[in-house]
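Field reference: sequence -> structure
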Amino acid sequence: MTITLILLLFLAVYLFLQDARFGKAPTGERLSIIQKSPNYKNGKFENEHFTPDLTEGYTMAGVLYEFLFKRKEHRIPVNPIPSIKTDLVNLSLDKDVLVWFGHSSYFIQIDRKRILVDPVFSGNASPIAGTTKAFKGTDIYTVDDLPEIDYLLITHDHYDHLDYKTIQKLKPKTKQIVCGLGVGSHFEFWGFSPGIIIEKDWHEKIELDANITLYTAPTRHFSGRAFKRCNTLWLSFILQTPAFKMYLGGDSGYDTHFAAIGEKYGPFDLALIDNGQYDVKWKYIHNLPENVIQAAKDLKTKRLFPIHSSKFPLANHPWDEPLKRVTELNQNEINPIPLVTPMIGEFVELKNEEQKFQQWWKNLK
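Structure field:
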């Protein structure tokens, strides 16, 4: 009887993992290209420097126990997160703006092109429905609220950055996709034409348009859906036009790559950097707030936009701690970097360095 139950459990898990939401691992010619990458070693992609999943002295069992039985207060806000519903469909192409949707999803319009980064509009950051739900007030946008997208950028294939339901709805609106090596396998499996998928390694250049150039760069993180890890590449982007330069940071722990990117491509007009869902226990794969400030200095950015917060409870810190801590740390700097902290849906004027933002998270429970 016990053996039968175990077999049935394994069968149920196996069948569940065949669902389309998990995507498809790279095979064939795509896998051959991956295997030639200098960043692919011992059957997987590796970071520039040794990157353990957990900080020394911690165990996965301990992390799980704390997450399940010692959750901190205020991980999830009681009141709805304030947000603004902006009409993006009828937005004039003459406006150079950024609109944040919470966490690491945002829309950029620059030089008359529309760019969407890591969109998650399903209300969930997990393959299991209802397990990692978006905070109240953060899910006011849907794919229907978006115009046609010239370039869809994906930093890596984790569920809080690459959402199957959102991507499926985006299919008729998406003209071109740019992602790391191997990630295109998911898109092709989901019915996207291979002809619109651009997959790149770190340190590559993509001429998107006569006025828009993308460069790919490392982050310190990992990838994977289901049980397979690091079989696709995680990355960040440098977006450059004749008059503006942005760092679009994917998930990352702090390392020397920020300074290297700053030396090669900086200074930046705006940098979006991972700041949230962190813990000292996994500091190698997600920045702590103090790392965010240092990374901004390394990148030589004029303005800092801390992202990866305020939508999903993926860590054990209070929901508003990332914005509180990065703000306090920045205020204590001799030369504070202007922070970009919009509400969800609020216009960020890309070329207005004097634009001010409210600390909207204050006094919210």
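Note: The two ends are 50 Å apart (CA to CA).
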